[in-house]
Amino acid sequence: MTTDTGRAAGPVDATGSPHAVLRTLPAGAVAVEGGIWAKRQAINREAALPHGFRMLQQAGNLDNLRLAAGGATEGYRGPVFMDSDVYKWIEAAAFELARRPDPELEALIERAIDAIEPAQQPDGYLNSYYTVAEPGRRWTDFGHGHELYCAGHLFQAAVAHHRATGSARLLDVARRFADHIDRTFGPGKRPAVPGHPEVETALVELYRETGERRYLALAGFLLDGRGHGWLGPSRRYGSSAYFQDRVPVREASEVEGHAVRALYLTAGVADVYLETGERALLDALERQWHDMVARKLYLTGGVGSRHLAEAFGKPYELPNELAYCETCAAIASILWCWRMLLMTGEARFADLAERTLYNAVLSGVSLDGQFYFYVNPLADDGEPEHLHRGGPSRKPWHDVACCPPNVMRLVASLGHYLATRDDHGLQLHQYGAARIAVDLPTAGPVAVRVESAYPWDGRVRIAVEEDGSGPWTLSLRLPAWSEETGVAVNGEPSDAAPDGRGYLRLERVWTEGDVVDVAFSMRPRLIEAHPRIESTRGCLAIERGPLVYCLEQQDQQAPLSDLEIDPAVPLTAAWEPDLLDGVAVVRGSGFTVDRAAWAGRLYRPYQPGETAPKRRVDLTAIPAYAWANRGPNAMRVWIPRG
Amino acid sequence: MTTDTGRAAGPVDATGSPHAVLRTLPAGAVAVEGGIWAKRQAINREAALPHGFRMLQQAGNLDNLRLAAGGATEGYRGPVFMDSDVYKWIEAAAFELARRPDPELEALIERAIDAIEPAQQPDGYLNSYYTVAEPGRRWTDFGHGHELYCAGHLFQAAVAHHRATGSARLLDVARRFADHIDRTFGPGKRPAVPGHPEVETALVELYRETGERRYLALAGFLLDGRGHGWLGPSRRYGSSAYFQDRVPVREASEVEGHAVRALYLTAGVADVYLETGERALLDALERQWHDMVARKLYLTGGVGSRHLAEAFGKPYELPNELAYCETCAAIASILWCWRMLLMTGEARFADLAERTLYNAVLSGVSLDGQFYFYVNPLADDGEPEHLHRGGPSRKPWHDVACCPPNVMRLVASLGHYLATRDDHGLQLHQYGAARIAVDLPTAGPVAVRVESAYPWDGRVRIAVEEDGSGPWTLSLRLPAWSEETGVAVNGEPSDAAPDGRGYLRLERVWTEGDVVDVAFSMRPRLIEAHPRIESTRGCLAIERGPLVYCLEQQDQQAPLSDLEIDPAVPLTAAWEPDLLDGVAVVRGSGFTVDRAAWAGRLYRPYQPGETAPKRRVDLTAIPAYAWANRGPNAMRVWIPRG
After folding, report:
1. Integer Cα distance of B618 and A218 in angstroms
2. Could you check whether A30-417 and A419-520 share the same CATH topology?
């Protein structure tokens, strides 16, 4: 079977992008075939997507569009960006359709489009909030109005729908709106800076799908407008940094402000770079990347430290209990990572995408696919939250429901992020059971089957099922977390050395039946954090493979807040098939500390000789993503060192 | 000189409160005569109050009232509660007038009242926002409208003005408005729950000043309405906990929600208790007090951990860099403490008032009295803040300018909080140079002069200047921080033991010329925090006397973020008369740690054997309140233990 039909798949079609070092694979090239991701995709399809459609009906998202179609001027429900949730759901459903035909799901998509299509105004404008709730006030609130944000999600949904079905029904709607925007804004027309980036990356993709270069130019225009204070300070948060309007995109050196906005913007800048190759854009992205990973990143890959403004904090401002780590920000980080990987071919971007996917996105959805975290802290006391922070329970939906359909579209498109090709071969970026088939320019059609119980087992077998003609290169990402990685080709240990980009390149004339065996080190690891981070001082975290672990209260022998970990006792891992849909737990040893001396007070004179009585206890850690699936529960990722 | 004229002084007149264990002293009873507080009062009078009046003119507070008087329906500037800043400024100025006549200041007060008086509507209603900006929408937004909040500050200003000048001009305005509110709300009339408490305590004080019992009943009515969800969830923060409407006041067991709101409310509940003696109110306050001091209090006395909603966090949620610790919340805590002290006579409340005053309020104003912190963190990296948090520089005023005039009114009324009397004697709660004269029911007029360089010097001399007739008791608070306290009467060591309330009671027939010498331990102390607090783990703080210290970058030999303190090296104190208007610095020893191994990354596998290279350095600590008076500067209270 050759699957390189030329039609693109997934959210990014960089098959023709002149400045992509790696090329995305076409529709059908990757089939996820088992393991954790196949399970997540099945739940996404069978439970999450139908649940999401029900929620869109209940919350009023579809009704808002119908009101707009009917000319109503009252009855709008929800925040200004309700349309975007519909578009993200369609995008997710379309990615599912691209994986496997599903008439039921297709019918739901059609029902959603039935609501969208007639809501479009004769001039192409489409936004239910400004049509129903604030008629006559189009394009008056770039900071918080989210019109271009909603437009962007429409474009992405339309592109995904077109790719999945071949139908241009939604794409035509999108093009009419894009053309309206293009007639309205641009050089010599009106200025615009989207208060919430998203339309930039979407316009580039719409360009890729339609070939209409005006859309790429418009994306560039919207980027160029930033950093001149045009938006003014945010009326809610007092600063232009909130929506990345403090400095021009080419001068940016920090990730700052609202985290989702910041990383949707970097994704958009990356998309423009992929098409234009402008060095200043790449340099700015590299500076911001460095700022993020060296100063503003949680161990889980989560980003955005502040509840206030849902924003990046100052360097090293990474509280655990108060971490915001919005699910959408983690997804945005993956979207950016993926484009950086396409731009550079460097494994560090796939490394972070993997960390973020397993630990900061997967945490955002319950095992049954129907309960969601907006906020993903690294510690919680398990008690109800009277005020605002979210507390230890996932919710079926949110008043601001950006996260649930965002998780759905990422899970549905996971196959997109597993592999790429270049002229000489195939690159594996993420591991898991899958079949990957691609038409190489040099070697013609090739296909491999990846077999693995990853991330639980570090052994990955790659079997060549279609061998192509002549030599080609199979590149394997060497995860930074794997202390040692063994590779054997047809049973013979390979002495290939990693290349400078973090990949092992196996170049040969492959034969059907060739087998590459990779073994990543799955020994549980203790991790320490930069001493400037105040929340992790004196603490250790547990990792195994790509997973960050946590202690959840119900697995422990003593109150979580009194536990310490003993780093001298080696950690062990054990597969628990019946726990949390099947996880490897990590067991260690530590202490429970008697806090009686602290009763009733928070501070006391330092008593250097005094040590509180301790009792040795076993510690059992689960993957951090799986917490809060057994009822409200205290949890912590970072454990004081005993 | 006898000063017990019967006319009350200061913000609380509990001279007639039936359930006060201790009685407030009348006008003129206390004169602050030197030291840090005399200096702060002089700056308050000479610099801060004139500066504040200019700011009220510039920001539009007075113009708003003039617009209301003139019947305008546009031109209002600022947030809805702009009137309250005017009232708090008048209250502060009136407290100053009560200390010493000042025609210039009195003229400014009259100018302010000239703006207020004609803004009152014929029916007694008075609020410039709802008169100018939202006419016809009076009493429609109890959650966020702040009408009753502004009314409360008017009442307090009017009472202070009446007490200071004898003029009923502003008091008449206040009574007309109070009567209007009383006609509008109450049993059988309309319900009301103030979204921002303040009017409750003010109504009780208006009752005390006027004898009009309806005002006390109204305060009780407003308290009784809470906790039934009448306000609904805050539209900004999603919860009734935000404005303490989650549980009835008699069932409250936690301090929760917006910190200033929470503690203005507890102050109001305490005021009602002082008049009614209802046990359930006292019990609820005790429960909330315990929750605050055992789970939600910063070392500085600051409260309110969260920037989002300016709120108390969950137990032990006490980040340092992200501490909110609004200056107003610290003031609210002192107002509550003072009433708890009057209710119980227990030193723990005066202890916390002292801690909060020196460390969480004084930090909020610059040494020159003209620059203010809204937020008082316990650590700052000294770098500019792009977003919102405030950064390391005080501002001359704020868009939401509640804090500056709040500091002014507290500083102007400090004498109020130094001492009380009961039937048998005089109680000293706060120490510093002052003369205190009071007419005791049993012993008649007595007077003492307190001489001390407190808080820099722990020696306090109390000289009896007027001895009264027969025995009376001089009670001295024994601060919890003083490890040992020596007391001598006329040079003879006293063997009096502390009473059960935290006071040393010296009962005798006093003779003019008697001298009591007290010596508190001023040895600098290292403090450790509850191990459940994540931000202070492995850290120590420095205290000396009532002061919390900090390291400020410019006093150190290495970058602040790389410093550790060596607890084995004793701390020493030294008086620096030319530094920061005169402070005792505390010197210690520690290390600067080489962080080179961490360059470019935040996390790494734990390396148990590895210790980073360290170099010994001297550490110099200043009182935490004095930071940010020498330009932007990194600062930290909690220092990692090396």
Report:
1. 58
2. no
Residues 6+ apart with CB under 8 A from B523: B483, B544, B571
Query: With 0-12 CB in 10 A as exposed, 13-18 as middle and 19+ as buried, what is B491?
Result: exposed
Give the residue carrying structure tokens 């340092």: B320
Confirm or reject contact between A317 and chain B (CB < 8 A): yes
Domain locations in chain A as residue ranges: 30-417, 419-520, 525-640
Report chain B residues whose CB lies below 8 A from the CB of A526. 605-606
Do the chains contact at B527 and A605, CB–CB below 8 Å? yes
Architecture of domain A30-417: Alpha/alpha barrel (1.50)
Which chain B residue's Cα is nearest to A300? Answer: B603
Annotated catalytic, A403?
no
Catalytic positions of B: 310, 402
Q: How far is B366 from chain A (nearest CA, A)?
A: 23
Helix (H, G, I), strand (E, B) or coil at A554: helix
Cα torsion angle, A41, A43, A46, A51, sign: negative
List, in sequence order, the alpha helices (H) in A257-346: 259-276, 279-295, 327-344
Confidence (pLDDT) at B459: 98
Interface predicted TM-score (ipTM) over 0.90: yes
Read off the pLDDT of residues A515-562 as tens digits, 9 standing for 90 and up: 999 999 999 999 999 999 999 999 999 999 999 999 999 999 999 999
Give the predicted TM-score (pTM) of the model: 0.95
- What is the per-residue pLDDT across B259-286, written as a single tens digit (0 to 9) for each? 999 999 999 999 999 999 999 999 999 9
Compare B308 and A259 and report the one with higher pLDDT.
Answer: A259
Determine the residue among B253, B293, B314 to mutate to test chain A binding: the one whose Cβ has the most chain A Cβ atoms within 10 Å: B314
Mean pLDDT of B369-375: 94
Answer whether residue B9 shows pLDDT above 70: no
Examine the pLDDT at B8 and tell me if it is beyond 70. no
Contact A322 B320 (CB under 8 A): no
* B591 pLDDT more than 50: yes
Contacts of A488 (CB under 8 A, 6+ apart): A494, A516, A517
**What would the pLDDT profile of A25-75 be if each residue is shown by its tens digit?**
998 899 999 899 999 999 999 999 999 999 999 999 999 999 999 999 999
Residue B378, token pair as written in the block: 């316990």
Tell me the residue ranges of DSSP E strands in A387-524. Answer: 419-421, 425-428, 434-440, 444-452, 459-467, 472-477, 485-489, 492-493, 503-508, 515-520
Please, how many CA atoms are within 13 Å of residue B262, restricted to the half-sphere of its CB?
Answer: 32
Of A381, A387, A539, Cβ closest to residue B239 = A387
**Alpha carbons B532 and B315: distance in angstroms, whole number:** 9
Interface of B with A in 561-620 (CB under 8 A): 561, 567-568, 593, 595, 598, 600-608
pLDDT grade for A3, boundaries at 50, 70 and 90: very low
Nearest-5° Cα angle at B606, B601 to B607: 105
Asked if A534 and B321 come within 8 Å (Cβ–Cβ), the reply is yes
Q: Is A304 on the interface with B (CB under 8 A)?
A: no
Query: B288 and B253 in contact (C-beta within 8 Å)?
Result: yes
Q: Does domain B419-520 have CATH number 2.60.40?
A: yes
Residues in chain A with CB shorter than 8 Å from the CB of B604 are 527-528
Q: Is B558 on the interface with A (CB under 8 A)?
A: no
CA distances from A445 to A163, A436, A536, B543 (A): 22, 11, 50, 73
- For chain B, give the number of residues: 642
Residues on chain B touching A387 (C-beta within 8 angstroms): 237-239, 241-242, 256-257, 306, 309, 311
Is there a contact between A241 and B387 if contact means CB atoms under 8 Å apart? yes
pLDDT at B6 over 50: no
Nearest C-alpha neighbor of B507 from the set B540, B475, B484, B529: B475
Closest approach of A607 to chain B, Cα-based (Å): 8
